[in-house]
Model the fold of this input.
Amino acid sequence: MVMHAADLQVRQKAQKEMIDRLKVDLDCRDVVARDLGAARQRGAYRQYKCPFHDDSSPSLTVWAVGWKCYGCGRSGDVIAWVQAYHNLYLSKALEYLNGAAVELPKREQSPATAKELAPPPKEWQAAANDVANYAFDQLWGPGGKGARRYLTEQRGLDETTISGAMLGYVPGAPDEWRTVAGMHVPAGIVIPWLVEGELWQVKVRRAAGKPKYLGVTGGVAAGLYGVDEIDPRGIVMIVEGEIDALSVNQERVGIRAVALGMAVKQFDSHWMQKLLFAERIYARLDRNAAGVAGVARLLEISRRVMPVQVDEPYDDCNDFAVRDRQGFRAWLKGLL
Ligand SMILES: [Zn+2]
Done:
């Protein structure tokens, strides 16, 4: 078959568009990580021993849109990486990257969302840690009996789960506030957010008042609750609330849950990097409009997210677990 010049132009145009799209969609760091694994991290950069020359120190630096070896001088974009590392023609490299694009999260585009995500300052964390310790002692002290009963009977959490999550209790009337370690804290169940060894926030579930959940002022809400405990290559479930995550995790069926604990639109897609090598990523969000929009947003960040829903008539994972623990367990096992 003879190819006409016009056909060739069409193909060239299509290929050019594909190249542009892949360069925009893919984060070079994710693509290189598929080949070289975990890296030494320096801020936005990843450093590896270069596979193209006999490298004694990590000379290869990779960032969102490119890579360069300071030893042998090779460099390029994400497409050049795949061509060089896998020894592929351009068309084969594009095929490979189209496949990779299905699995990898989309690269952060806007500078506004790409701003560095950081936990609160050390001084805040020290005070918040005192609050969490105080609340922990209160929960397990004589005054915490009612709160413990609430967590075990009404929320179905085992004592191991409660203490493992370092949950606590600030005593007081439903709308009361206390000053603990110099911080203004509402009365209620205290949920500390330890992420990567840092205390990002301390949330309190109040017995009454709106909103039901409040963060102690100064905390950073854009974390991902429970992310430290996931198996990087295991099955992960993204849920809305912290207690939902605890309900899933206490069943120990081989699915670890992480909680957004906030509106999905605030979710920082940086956290999706932590789920990069997960075998599967489920998302269980509410059936309401916010939940539907949330799932859409998660799918925008990663096309690997698989929406799932709890059985009727239950509202969420915790509600399911409390009202039918055997059924909840069976539902989880069905997702393995
Ligand atoms: Zn090199």
Residues 227-333 form a domain with the Dna Topoisomerase Vi A Subunit; Chain: A, domain 2 fold (CATH 3.40.1360.10).
